[in-house]
């Protein structure tokens, strides 16, 4: 028992000695298409544009956008067709040709499939290899789909621009009817769903109303979330990711002649506030938003593992720089939400670095030593064998000290 306690003490001492306020490599990335601008951009966690990729050589009018777990981007064209880009912005070719109607909104579900809302009242689901899994043509041809999202069970929710309904589909494509029947003057344009299955619908009846409506998972209206400066633009695209939060794309309108931007919901103030500047589009604004989540490798060893939990547990409640130490959601505090983010990615290896990102090379000896200490909790012999292997990482004297502790 005494031996095991010493091993645990060594494990926590190593975690504590790491740099608890050092930024981890897996920063989140935000992507937005430029409606009418022939491009899409990447923004970092604080709203700074880091890259801008032109699409005009392949298609002129980007619409919806999604990013998969490997960092591959899927971009729709308002004139029809879906296209793929690598995480570094390299064009990868056509995912779906232009014979299809305009794909207005895209989402990747939890099983890694691409679901597309088309402007011709159709919803379709594809594998990432391009295989069609199911397709549903809505009987009301006047319901022009512009927004789509999935809940934690991969049920599909869709809205149509200017409509007051949210319709629902099972993960196998079965139509389940209206999930929400909104009351006028709510005119929906897009939709997002958070980790608790709350539903957010952009209400774009400007200038009378310009807010995001929040509903429970059962469709009950909860509240209206105001948008600062919404008298200058109208909300359209919306996206949620736990490591970033809730973002809404504000579109230029005919009254103010202002370019669009992205706003982020501030939980403390209860208001959407400007997240990017007004230069993300020369004409309209963000028609689609996708978020590549943070990779919660808090210990910077290339994997989400036990040592990341140790760092989180050791520093819970600490104030740190955003996305450093064990702050997985960038709010500057190590809290329960950071554990939830770590838990959702436990055991994962990282995706390729996104556009404009830098990859940090971690010191290899700490995660290696922590792994061996875990093994030693069950076998002293394992630890003795491992101690000899540690010499190449931290030197003979340190190994001798570790052996003397037990």
Q: Please, what is the CATH homologous superfamily of the largest domain?
A: TolB, C-terminal domain
Q: Could you describe the largest sheet, including whether it forms a barrel?
A: 4 strands, antiparallel
Tally of contiguous helical segments:
7
CATH C-level name of the largest domain? Mainly Beta
Stretches where pLDDT is under 50 for at least 5 consecutive residues are 6-18, 356-384, 386-406
Radius of gyration: 24 Å
Measured distance between first and last alpha carbons: 11 Å
Total domain modules: 2
| General form | globular
Average pLDDT for all residues? 79
Could you tell me the strand content as a percent range? 25-35%
Query: How are the strands of the biggest sheet laid out side by side?
Result: 3-2-1-24
Q: Under CATH, the topology of the largest domain is which?
A: Neuraminidase
- Number of E-state strands: 24
Assign a percent range to the helix content.
10-25%
Q: Architecture of the largest domain, according to CATH? A: 6 Propeller
* Structural class assignment: alpha+beta
Protein described:
There is one protein chain. The chain has helices at residues 2-17, 306-315, 336-345, 365-376, 380-389, 391-394, 396-405, and strands at 29-34, 39-43, 49-54, 62-67, 73-77, 82-85, 91-96, 103-108, 114-118, 122-126, 132-137, 145-150, 156-160, 165-169, 175-181, 188-193, 199-203, 211-215, 221-226, 234-241, 245-251, 261-266, 271-274, 286-292. By secondary structure, the chain is an alpha+beta fold. It folds into 2 domains: 2-24 and 300-405, no CATH class; 29-292, Neuraminidase (6 Propeller), CATH 2.120.10. The strands form 6 sheets. It has a 4-stranded antiparallel beta sheet with strand order 3-2-1-24, with no helix packed on it. Strands 4-5-6-7 form a 4-stranded antiparallel beta sheet, with no helix packed on it. A 4-stranded antiparallel beta sheet has the order 8-9-10-11, with no helix packed on it. Strand 6 and strand 7 (91-96) form a beta hairpin. The protein is globular and about 55 Å long. 43% of the residues are buried. The model is unreliable at 6-18, 356-384 and 386-406 (pLDDT under 50).
């Amino acid at each position: 028992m005494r031996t095991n306690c010493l091993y645990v003490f060594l494990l926590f001492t190593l975690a504590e000695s790491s740099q608890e306020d050092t930024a981890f490599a897996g920063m989140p990335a935000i992507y937005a298409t430029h409606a009418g601008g022939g491009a899409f951009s990447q923004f970092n966690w604080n709203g700074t544009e880091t890259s801008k990729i032109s699409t005009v050589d392949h298609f002129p009018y980007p619409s919806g956008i999604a990013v998969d777990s490997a960092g591959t981007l899927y971009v729709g064209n308002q004139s029809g067709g879906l296209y793929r880009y690598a995480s570094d912005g390299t064009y990868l070719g056509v995912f779906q040709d232009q014979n299809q109607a305009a794909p207005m909104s895209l989402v990747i579900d939890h099983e890694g499939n691409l679901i597309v809302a088309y402007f011709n009242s159709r919803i379709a689901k594809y594998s990432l290899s391009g295989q069609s899994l199911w397709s549903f043509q809505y009987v009301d041809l006047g319901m022009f789909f512009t927004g789509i999202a999935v809940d934690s069970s991969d049920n599909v929710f869709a809205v149509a621009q200017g409509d007051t309904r949210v319709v629902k589909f099972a993960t196998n494509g079965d139509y389940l009817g209206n999930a929400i029947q909104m009351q006028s003057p709510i005119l929906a344009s897009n939709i997002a769903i958070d980790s608790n299955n709350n539903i957010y619908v952009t209400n774009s009846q400007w200038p009378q109303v310009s807010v995001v409506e929040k509903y429970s998972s059962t469709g009950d209206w909860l509240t209206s979330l105001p948008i600062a400066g919404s008298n200058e633009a109208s909300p359209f695209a919306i996206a949620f990711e736990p490591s970033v939060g809730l973002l809404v794309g504000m579109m230029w309108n005919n009254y103010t002649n202002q370019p669009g931007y992205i706003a982020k919901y501030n939980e403390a103030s209860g208001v959407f506030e400007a997240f990017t500047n007004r230069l993300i589009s020369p004409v309209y604004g963000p028609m689609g938003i996708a978020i590549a989540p943070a990779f919660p490798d808090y210990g910077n060893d290339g994997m989400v593992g036990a040592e990341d939990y140790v760092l989180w547990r050791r520093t819970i409640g600490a104030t740190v720089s955003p996305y450093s130490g064990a702050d997985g959601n960038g709010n500057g505090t190590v809290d329960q939400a950071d554990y939830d983010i770590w838990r959702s990615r436990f055991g994962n290896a990282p995706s390729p670095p996104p556009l404009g990102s830098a990859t940090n090379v971690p010191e290899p000896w700490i995660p290696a030593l922590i792994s061996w200490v875990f093994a030693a909790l069950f076998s002293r012999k394992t630890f003795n064998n491992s101690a000899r292997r540690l010499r190449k990482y931290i030197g003979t004297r340190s190994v001798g000290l570790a052996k003397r502790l037990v």
